[in-house]
Amino acid sequence: MQPTAPLLRQLRRLALTTKQVNGGYYKGTGSGSMGRHTKHGGYIIDYRKVRTYVVPKDLKDFKLTPFVTKNMEPSKGDFEGDPKGGLSGERYLERWKRENGTD
Q1: What string of H, E and C letters represents the secondary structure of the chain?
Q2: Which among 11, 35, 38, 59 could bridge 45 via Cys, Cβ 3.0 to 4.6 Å?
Q3: How far, in Å, CA of 29 to CA of 40, rounded?
């Protein structure tokens, strides 16, 4: 059984998969390499390969709007009295015990 000619044309418009082509086809994820691996298991970033985005300086008269409303006030965490702020391990453990019970 074979698909009809119109159905076959529609199948050709879809994206290729690795099962439809011969060996050596690698689809990838669209993310390029930003450096190289070292022989010791590390990774060295090559800043010539890193993507940088230039934001225009004056955005007050910009026609497009962001996805976040400009009327929203910045929210602040309540980390008063904790010198490490939100990164405190003790604070994390306190909250975990409060929400999940004792370990």
Answers
A1: CCCCHHHHHHHHHCCCCCCCCCCCCCCCCCCCCCEEECCCCCEEECCCCCCCCCCCCCCCCCCCCCCCCCCCCCCCCCCCCCCCHHHCHHHHHHHHHHHHCCC
A2: 35
A3: 26
Looking up tokens 């086809």, which residue turns up?
A: 25
- Give dist(CA 84, CA 25) in Å, integer: 49
User: Is a pLDDT exceeding 80 seen at residue 84?
Assistant: no
Interatomic CA distance for residues 58 and 70, integer angstroms: 16
- For residue 41, the model assigns a pLDDT of 94
For residue 19, give every residue at least 6 positions away whose Cβ sits within 8 Å of its Cβ, in sequence order, or none: none
Structure-token pair, residue 2: 């074979």
